[in-house]
Design brief:
about 30% helix, five-stranded mixed β-sheet, 5 strands, alpha+beta, about 80 residues, globular, 3 helices, single chain
Length: about 80
């Protein structure tokens, strides 16, 4: 199990009520399961529209179960942004 930081941006930050929080998970799927448990409601809905960066690298269309998290890593939760 790896420990790191989840950072929320824009609508995800507003729905989580925090800019960041720790994770303890092996995969992105496990980390997001933890997020849904801690923040039921609006953030769960926002996550459906989000893209994710793991240590600066886009997850893209990879299955979240296959995306391994590193000790001390960072997960960025990026909702769609308007404008540029």
């Amino acid at each position: 199990m790896a420990a790191g930081t989840i950072r929320y941006w824009a609508a995800a930050k507003a729905a989580a009520g925090t800019a960041e929080e720790p994770y303890a998970a092996r995969t992105l799927a496990e980390a997001l399961d933890g997020v849904r448990e801690r923040h039921p409601g609006e953030l769960t809905r926002v996550l459906l529209r989000c893209s994710f960066l793991i240590d600066g690298n886009p997850v893209g269309t990879r299955s979240h179960e296959t995306v391994r998290l590193a000790e001390g890593g960072t997960v960025e939760v990026l909702p769609p942004f308007a404008g540029g």
